[in-house]
TrEMBL record:
<keyword id="KW-1133">Transmembrane helix</keyword>
<feature type="transmembrane region" description="Helical">
    <location>
        <begin position="21"/>
        <end position="40"/>
    </location>
</feature>
<feature type="transmembrane region" description="Helical">
    <location>
        <begin position="163"/>
        <end position="183"/>
    </location>
</feature>
<feature type="transmembrane region" description="Helical">
    <location>
        <begin position="88"/>
        <end position="110"/>
    </location>
</feature>
<keyword id="KW-0472">Membrane</keyword>
<feature type="transmembrane region" description="Helical">
    <location>
        <begin position="276"/>
        <end position="304"/>
    </location>
</feature>
<comment type="similarity">
    <text>Belongs to the amino acid-polyamine-organocation (APC) superfamily. Amino acid transporter (AAT) (TC 2.A.3.1) family.</text>
</comment>
<keyword id="KW-0813">Transport</keyword>
<keyword id="KW-0997">Cell inner membrane</keyword>
<protein>
    <recommendedName>
        <fullName>Aromatic amino acid transport protein AroP</fullName>
    </recommendedName>
</protein>
<dbReference type="InterPro" id="IPR004841">
    <property type="entry name" value="AA-permease/SLC12A_dom"/>
</dbReference>
<feature type="domain" description="Amino acid permease/ SLC12A">
    <location>
        <begin position="21"/>
        <end position="445"/>
    </location>
</feature>
<dbReference type="GO" id="GO:0006865">
    <property type="term" value="P:amino acid transport"/>
</dbReference>
<dbReference type="InterPro" id="IPR004840">
    <property type="entry name" value="Amino_acid_permease_CS"/>
</dbReference>
<keyword id="KW-0029">Amino-acid transport</keyword>
<comment type="function">
    <text>Permease that is involved in the active transport across the cytoplasmic membrane of all three aromatic amino acids, phenylalanine, tyrosine and tryptophan.</text>
</comment>
<feature type="transmembrane region" description="Helical">
    <location>
        <begin position="203"/>
        <end position="224"/>
    </location>
</feature>
């Protein structure tokens, strides 16, 4: 048939992401719901000491990304860390890692599309929320069916809006702190960082308890590795994007939240809504809600866009390795895996139903579940990296183009830290259910592997298209 012939001839992704695209994809991937909404929950849990959680968590994320970057520069493949897990740890590890990342993206995207509906409700309160959810799913799905350059350009501009907004809020907040203005506010100084119960009002327990939300905020940064197969020059662009992670974390998380908590007592955030509304209200901007809404809508669209892109490319890569249905390899003429985009779109339709069923604490549950999936993926990246290094000779290790710093001590400490985060999820009553659900998901995947795929009954998963 002509269609099948075309599909067989066109089974490779096309490169179309420039250094500018990847730099802003990396920038925007870590600035989303976790910062604009989740930061309030983290602040309430740890107080100003949450800054330490972001610094420590950010350092761990940087090491994970350096490990992923080393593998991506060495071997840029569509399946990214899913493929690396399969190659260095075995097919089962690759299967679980790839599908867990896809699961993570679906969970996060469900929250993001629902948040989009809530944001639009501010402007159009009489329009049912599910209509906005349905509309954004079709819109983002259509964007992801275009050439990868369209995705890159869209992420560039959406990320630029977020960056400009945060920089503007930082400057405005610094003005209030040191000079005072807006509603005739006096200069607040930095005393709020330690005047309401101290810098760490809940002690180290509070810092540990905040790690779930903090790591959720960083989730998605691993999309840098996913872009490697479609980057024009991955040996150059991937290291550049990864090496800016520490600066991004310090500026967009630590400095931004420090400004927020210096402006207003940390224990008042829950009473006054999103912490990012506070600066605009404090400056007396009449259109504060509208300005913020534009920013958070841009953030949610960017997040949904990245979620569909990342999960789609992961499923495509797994399909090529026989770990997902071979129909996921179907590409449009522009080199886009259209079937995986459709699958993600259908999965996100569940958000329409969730709009009627979501309880008040659903964000913490979703964030914790996503945090578990994220940390699991990061652990597999670290283990894959260790396995890769173990298979290299001493001479080959010296020739690594983008090596992880202070290997193996620092990666081992990072691995230990990830174990602590998972343990914290189990210790906290609010997140324990998410940990249980995450472990059940891993168990389900293992059961599917041993009970179906490994026994040769998953014919549709045959990468070569032949039945076992």
């Amino acid at each position: 048939m002509p269609h099948s012939t075309s599909s067989q001839q066109n089974t490779h992704l096309k490169t179309g992401l420039s250094a500018r695209h990847i730099r802003f994809i990396a920038l925007g991937s870590a600035i989303g719901t976790g910062l604009f909404y989740g930061s309030a929950e983290a602040i309430k849990t740890a107080g100003p000491a949450v800054l330490l959680a972001y610094l420590i968590g950010g350092a761990a994320v940087f090491i994970v990304m350096r490990a992923l970057g080393e593998m991506a520069v060495h071997n840029p493949v569509p399946g990214s860390f899913g493929s690396y897990a399969r190659e260095y740890l075995g097919p089962l590890a690759g299967f679980i890692t790839g599908w867990t990342y896809t699961f993570e993206m679906v969970i996060v995207a469900l929250a993001d599309v629902t948040a989009f509906g809530i944001y639009m409700g501010l402007w159009y309160p009489d329009v049912p929320q599910w209509i906005w959810v349905l509309g954004i799913i079709f819109f983002i799905g259509a964007m992801n069916l275009c050439h990868v350059r369209v995705f890159g350009e869209m992420e560039f501009w959406l990320s630029l809006i977020k960056v400009v907004a945060i920089v503007a809020m930082m400057l405005a907040g610094a003005g209030v702190i040191f000079f005072g203005f807006g509603h005739h506010l006096p200069a607040t100084g930095l005393a709020n960082l330690w005047s309401h119960g101290g810098f760490a009002p809940h002690g180290w327990q509070g810092v540990l308890a905040s790690l779930g939300i903090v790591m959720f905020a960083f989730g998605g940064v691993e999309i840098i590795g996913v872009t490697a197969a479609e980057a024009k020059d991955p040996q150059k662009t991937i290291p550049q994007a990864i090496n800016t992670i520490p600066l991004r974390i310090i500026f967009f998380y630590v400095c931004t939240l420090a400004v927020l908590m210096a402006l207003f007592p940390w224990n008042h955030f829950g009473e006054q809504g999103s912490p990012f509304v506070i600066i605009f209200d404090g400056l007396g901007i009449p259109a504060a809600a509208t300005v913020l809404n534009i920013v958070v809508i841009s953030a949610s669209i960017s997040a949904i866009n990245s979620d569909i892109f990342g999960a789609g490319r992961m499923m495509y890569g797994m399909s090529r390795e026989g770990l997902a249905p071979r129909s996921f390899q179907r590409l449009a003429r522009n080199g886009v895996p259209w079937m995986t985009v459709v699958v993600m779109g259908v999965a996100l339709l569940g958000a329409v139903v969730l709009n009627y069923l979501m309880p008040e604490r659903v964000f913490v549950l979703i964030a914790s579940l996503a945090a578990f999936a994220t940390v699991w993926v990061w652990v597999m990246i670290l283990l894959s990296h260790f396995a890769m290094r173990r298979g290299l000779t001493a001479q080959q290790r010296k020739q690594i183009a983008f090596p992880v710093p202070f290997w193996p001590a620092v990666p081992l400490l990072t691995l230990l830290f990830m174990g602590v985060v998972i343990a914290v999820l189990g210790m906290m009553a609010e997140t324990r259910m998410a940990l249980i659900a995450g472990l059940l998901w891993i168990g389900l995947l293992a059961g599917v592997w041993f009970g179906w795929i490994r026994r040769g009954e998953g014919g549709a998963f045959d990468a070569n298209g032949s039945q076992s």
